[in-house]
Amino acid sequence: MKTFHPGMFYGDVERRQRVHDIALAELQPTVPEHEIETHTHTDAHFVLVLGGRYLSRARGMPAVCATPALIYNPPGTTHRDCFRGLEGRFLTVSMPATALAGRTLPEDPVRADAFGERAAFALRRELHRWDASSPLAAEAGIEHLFDTLRQRQRMTRDDGPAWLARARDRLRDDCAHPPRIDELARIAGVHPVAFARTFRRRYGRSPGEYLRECRLQRAAALLRERKRSLADIAAQAGFTDASHFSRTFREAFGCTPAAWRRID
């Protein structure tokens, strides 16, 4: 089995920069799918899929991913992730295991959320315009990327009370139809005050704040379906109208829904 050391990937490097022991690079695949061998990465790394059809075993990934996606692979990941064909493009953020000291991060490969994607695209823009101030900007961007991953991990872990996870899943799975606090409390089987207090303590945000994040995540995914209108996406994600959706999206992601659609 092959062992890949920090910064090693199946691909030709088009751009590369280093910030201390962290490497940023943009690559194109060079090895056909049938020639990819199972291999182990000694480093931790993010892979931002920019184009092509990507196959990954990371949690949250479809069988074949044909839209932008961000994957985190912890140190020691053994897989056969690859592109189907050679038309892809991807960004990597790679670091040795020692760079993760003191960080609480997923222990298994996982797809990051839309907030993580946004942070990764910002790093890609910095890589393309690299100048004397870029190392500091990239360091801040990498910390932001780690923070989005920690936030996602906090919201998806199930090592707390089962009743709290049930209520959280209700908010996530049907974010277009918001429940009242007393309905969530009934699902959880606790008093509304206890529910709201425990939810914030456990997840670091109120149920309403989490619901808004779920709506934004859903909207960001729907925006990849370019034939959908903003009004339809707004309705599917639970926003009052397209204007409300656009305003809230811009506040969260720093760009309009139309600009998000153009990101590549």
Search tags:
single chain, 264 residues, alpha+beta, Jelly Rolls, Arc Repressor Mutant, subunit A, 2 domains, six-stranded antiparallel beta sheet, three-stranded mixed beta sheet, globular
Please give a structural write-up.
There is one protein chain. The protein has 264 residues and is of the alpha+beta class. The protein folds into 2 domains: 2-156, Sandwich (Jelly Rolls), CATH 2.60.120; 162-262, Orthogonal Bundle (Arc Repressor Mutant, subunit A). The protein is 42% helix and 19% strand. It has 9 helices and 11 strands. The strands form 3 sheets. Strands 2-3-10-5-7-11 form a 6-stranded antiparallel β-sheet, covered by helices on one side. Helix 3 (162-173) crosses helix 4 (181-188) and helix 7 (230-237) packs across helix 8. The protein is globular and about 55 Å long. The two termini are 33 Å apart.
Helices and strands, in N-to-C order?
Answer: EEEEEEEEEEEHHHHHHHHH
Q: What fraction, in percent, of the residue positions are helical?
A: 40-55%
Assigned CATH class of the largest domain: Mainly Beta
Give the integer mean of the pLDDT values.
Answer: 91
Query: What's the alpha carbon Rg, rounded to whole Å?
Result: 20 Å
The CATH superfamily of the largest domain is identified as Jelly Rolls
Please state the second-level CATH architecture of the largest domain: Sandwich
Quote the distance from N terminus to C terminus: 33 Å
> Which class of secondary structure composition applies to the elements?
alpha+beta
| Total of domains | 2
Tell me, what's the shape? globular
Strand percent estimate: 15-25%
CATH topology of the largest domain: Jelly Rolls
| Strand runs, count | 11
